[in-house]
Design a protein that fits this description.
It contains 15 helices and 22 strands. With about 475 residues, it is α/β, with parallel strands linked by helices. The chain has 2 domains: about 5-245 and about 445-465, Aldehyde Dehydrogenase, Chain A, domain 1, CATH 3.40.605; about 250-435, 3-Layer(aba) Sandwich (Aldehyde Dehydrogenase, Chain A, domain 2), CATH 3.40.309.10. The chain has a 7-stranded mixed beta sheet with strand order 14-17-18-13-12-19-20, with helices on both faces. It has a 6-stranded mixed beta sheet with strand order 9-8-7-10-11-21, with helices on both faces. It is globular and about 75 Å long.
């Protein structure tokens, strides 16, 4: 595919191969952008920002609503593209397409609700004859840098709110999964988005991402990815707004009064979806002693039964990881944990980029499968003695994106909600749950700012205060 730059679809001699992570086959190529391409992208985005700001809010709503409709019309093609380049099963990819269309729908509605507030200036001394209000205006050029694991929905979470608020967008998708992002750009243009208001450049983060983020013409950066890259972006960004959606090693606490069937279902759903490549996967299962053995015994046969393999096979429940080297890393971390005293209850075998979903028992806080972000299909079980011990263990992390607890004890649930250091708190479900309208973001090293169209738009606009001085 070509990339979309300065209002045109363009090729380059240098290309990046996009491969099927299961078979390794090349499914397409995309251009590798140069420093000159970045300059062209930013220059055109400045003009695109002016064009987009001039579009009436209702017309922005219409454009985005049409985009969502076309996405649903082309759901099968978009889903197959996701599966081919990322490794999701077709069922997971179809779900992502529907969520992505909902994200664009939500963004379209927010385009009609963008406003300010009346200011009660007469509450201040010496304000007679003054009338004040606020208004929100677009930031201008938004840089959207997206990861591989949700290559359509996380693009929509950045592009949808940015356009709804009247900005232009320079989109840099992950090099592993650029194809579905480029197909979204085609749909946006077909829906009436001004040609210079959207740019999609493909290339390495070091060449493209850093240059975009460091440029003063960019007023706002929205990034989803690793903590390491997020910190690098913040160092080069300078004086501009940033939203950072970074990593996690999300805990799920299981109290003695938990419904074990629900805990088992939640662990399967939250621990292994998308081959564990979800930043809010249930990675650390913190189980109180009284129910530890029961839960592990319940989980083992169900984890063993998960069919992992070719994502295009309808019987597959867990597809490959996006890269073979990522699967190798997860395999090595699992075996390292075993060498340090953990028990591999089941799974953990690797074939190419496929890792059989793994369940580890007897994990401890010093193991990498607990301490760092696994981002793969492995769940580690730890023991706790009471709710206070479990909360301490949950907080023993640099991350704080999402956390869950299973309990029928309202006091324990509220203690968890108040004291666990996490941006998203779930009671009686796992940490991997999100509906796209909610505010979503982390604490500590898990990031800065909030996503969800309503909340993203607040960060993609700037506030003006207007005071009318009357002589009456």
């Amino acid at each position: 595919m070509k990339f979309y730059l300065a209002g045109e679809w363009q090729d380059r001699d240098a290309v990046i191969e996009v491969t099927n992570p299961y078979s390794g086959d090349v499914i397409d190529t995309v251009p590798a952008a140069s420093a000159g391409d970045v300059e062209s992208a930013l220059a055109s985005a400045v003009d695109g920002a002016a064009a987009m700001a001039a579009v009436h809010a209702y017309d922005r709503y219409v454009m985005l609503r049409k985009t969502a409709d076309l996405m649903r019309d082309r759901a099968d093609d978009l889903a197959r593209t996701i599966s081919m380049e990322e490794g999701k099963t077709l069922r997971e990819s179809l779900s992502e397409v529907e969520r992505s269309a909902q994200t664009i729908d939500l963004s379209s509605e927010e385009a009609k609700r963008l406003g300010g507030e009346f200011l009660p200036l007469d509450g201040g001394k010496g304000t007679e004859g003054k009338l004040g209000f606020t208004m929100r205006v677009p930031c201008g050029v938004i840089a959207a840098i997206t990861p591989f694991n949700f290559p359509l929905n996380l693009v929509c979470h950045k592009v949808g709110p940015a356009l709804a608020a009247g900005n232009s967008v320079v989109l840099k998708p992950a090099s592993d999964t650029p194809l579905v992002a480029l197909k979204l750009v085609e749909i946006l243009l077909e829906s009436g988005v001004p040609p210079l208001a959207i740019t999609c450049v493909t290339g390495s983060g070091s060449t493209v991402g850093n240059a975009i983020c460091a440029d003063r013409r960019v007023r706002k950066i929205s990034f989803t990815g690793s903590q390491e890259v997020g910190e690098q972006i913040c160092k080069v960004a300078g004086l501009k707004r940033v939203t950072m959606e970074l990593g996690s090693n999300s805990p799920l606490i299981v109290m003695p009064d938990a419904n074990m069937d629900m805990v088992t279902r939640a662990t399967l759903a939250c621990g292994y979806a998308n081959a564990g490549q979800v930043c809010i996967s249930a990675q650390r299962l913190i189980v109180l002693d009284e129910v530890h053995d029961e839960l592990v015994a319940s989980l083992q046969p169900k984890v063993e039964a998960i069919a992992a393999g070719d994502q295009l096979n309808n019987d597959t429940q867990v597809g490959p990881m996006v890269r073979t080297q990522d699967a190798e890393r997860v395999y090595d971390w699992i075996n390292e944990a075993v060498s340090q005293g953990a028990e591999l209850v089941c799974g953990g075998e690797r074939s190419g980029a496929v890792v059989q979903p793994a369940l580890l028992d007897g994990a401890t806080a010093d193991m990498r499968v607990v301490r760092e972000e696994v981002f793969g299909p492995a769940v580690a079980v730890l023991r706790a003695t009471n709710i206070d011990d479990a909360i301490r263990m949950a907080n023993d992390s640099n991350y704080g994106l999402s956390a869950g607890v299973f309990t029928q004890d309202i006091d324990a649930a509220m203690k968890f909600a108040r004291h666990v250091h996490s941006g998203n708190i779930h009671i009686n479900w796992g940490p991997m749950w999100r509906t796209d309208l909610m505010p979503y973001g982390g604490l500590k090293d898990s990031g800065l700012g909030k996503e969800g169209p309503k909340y993203a738009i607040e960060e993609m606009t700037e506030m003006k205060t207007v005071v009318i001085h009357s002589q009456l």
